[in-house]
Amino acid sequence: MTASLTTFVLAALVVLVIPGPGVVYVVTRSLTNQFLFLGLVYVSLAICTDGLYAVFASSLRNFITERFVSGPVPRCTSGFVHLRLGASLALTDRNAP
After folding, report:
1. Full-model pTM
2. Across 26-47, average pLDDT
């Protein structure tokens, strides 16, 4: 987490925590339990959204690989690109500024 995100989360948690009796049945009167409950909600939402991003990216990768990157042409192309990069690296003047 970055510093700005941490500051935002702490500011939002302070606004959502109610000093006194808990509003939700699971949350008791303790401020610590309210913070833990809101933290668990935040983590569970983060896990769900990140999981959805991962599933979407995986299915998109499979779609692209099956449709456009099949056969010997992409393999040969990537090999030629690697050979060209290696040759250009080997032939560069290392003493140049």
Report:
1. 0.48
2. 75
Q: What is the rounded CA–CA span in Å between residue 51 and residue 6?
A: 22
Amino acid at residue number 15: V
Evaluated on CA atoms 68, 74, 77, 78, the torsion sign reads positive
Tell me which amino acid residue 87 is: A
Q: Mean pLDDT throughout 13-40?
A: 67
User: For the chain, which residues make up each domain, given as ranges?
Assistant: 10-90
> Pick the residue with more confidence: 4 or 38?
38
Q: What percentage of the chain's residues is helix, strand, coil (to nearest 5)? A: 75, 0, 25
Q: Which residues of 5-32 are buried (b: 16+ CB within 10 A; e: fewer)?
A: eeeeeeeeeeeebeeeebeeeebeeeee
